[in-house]
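User: Here's a structure from my thesis project, written as structure tokens. My advisor, Dr. K., wants to see whether a designed sequence matches the one we expressed. Can you design one independently, without my sequence as a hint?
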């Protein structure tokens, strides 16, 4: 394992990957800590901010181009953007069930499931984890 491919990929991909990793780890802490506390809210707002950076940066990463500068992964970015707003609004309305389901979906779907896509051969994170392809 080496961070060289990530560090050599440019600031945008490094920012994207590091905030995605931060969001992944932070999500674990949010899930295991008590809900509704000031710490939960602070971590939640920080998580939403980090995920927003992940999503925003993804629109400027155009390595795979199927539709102009975009690829199917950008559809996930749109879904994540909408889901972040839905989850935040549910929390503000005290709709705990919707908030919980949306945030679990985001963490597992947008971050957990997406790990498999980032580890495909030829991707930067594949090279970080498994060595240069």
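Assistant: Designed independently from the structure alone:
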């Amino acid at each position: 394992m080496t961070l060289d491919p990530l560090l050599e990929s440019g600031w945008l991909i490094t920012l994207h990957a590091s905030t995605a990793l931060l969001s992944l780890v932070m999500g674990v802490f949010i899930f295991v800590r008590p809900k509704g506390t000031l710490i939960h809210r602070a971590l939640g707002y920080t998580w939403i901010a980090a995920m927003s950076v992940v999503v925003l940066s993804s629109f400027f990463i155009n390595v795979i181009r199927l539709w102009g500068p975009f690829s199917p992964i950008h559809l996930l970015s749109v879904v994540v953007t909408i889901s972040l707003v839905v989850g935040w609004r549910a929390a503000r309305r005290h709709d705990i069930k919707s908030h919980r389901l949306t945030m679990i979906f985001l963490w597992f779907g947008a971050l957990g499931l997406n790990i498999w896509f980032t580890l495909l051969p030829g991707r930067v994170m594949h090279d970080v984890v498994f060595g240069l392809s």
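When you compare it with your expressed construct, this may help: The two ends are 12 Å apart (CA to CA).
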